[in-house]
Protein: Concanavalin A-like lectin/glucanases superfamily protein
Organism: Flavobacterium fluvii
Amino acid sequence: MNINIAMIKKAFGIVFISMVFIGCQDMDRPELGNYPIDENPVGGPLKFYVPFDNNTTDPLRFAVDNIRAKFPTDNPLTQTEGINGKAAQGGVAKKFISYSSANDFAATAASFTVSFWAKHKAPTQTEFAFALTSDNWAKAAMFVMVEGTTANPVLKLFVDEQPSTGGSDKWFEWVNAKAVPGIFDDQWHHYAFVYDGTISKMVLYRDGVAYEPLSQWTNHGNIKFNTSKVGSFRIGGSGNPEEGWMNSWTGALDQFRLYASALTAAEANQLFTGKL
């Protein structure tokens, strides 16, 4: 039998090189299934998120939404020091950060959470932290507003579903005996407005502490925004700035999030303790 010495040497060479290559690999690399899971995968509950942390002087890039890379159509607000990095500073009359939409928040939010950090002195007027615009009397399907004094702060969240027939809107109010202390102390505070459609209940977590509103939307169930009427999204302003009392935000805002889910108390507290 003829033995091809050259072929044998070539085969041994290939085996040797393969063994060296395998030995040089990082054998501690985890298997594919062990990689960390994305906390907000595509289609996840976090629908809109502006951290205001981009290191840039470009006002549009500074306020970009990190979920779908949605740039604002306008941002006349300035930068300031935030709870975590930079923040947006209000104070420009009738001005706000404007986006073409809040992504698919309105279409998916049967339950919802609105989370942000705010720093505010005592106001001299009614001011709006955000507005999801629409064509109703307020020109907004949802907003948060503040007014009052340091001793008697007023905080309200308004929702208007605008059904094709009839009416279905709700004011969630934290006033009088239900007032949230320290809103206007010029310090950073975390706010998470959580509506759970499965139990028709709203809870505000301010710095991780739960505050219930003056009244609940008893037996209402899931939120059903009329998406044919919902329009742009505004941070730091109202749906109708030309209306004399609907003033823009004069304080600072940071880490703005919209979830199409009701965060748990532990999840809301994690945002507070983590300064997220």
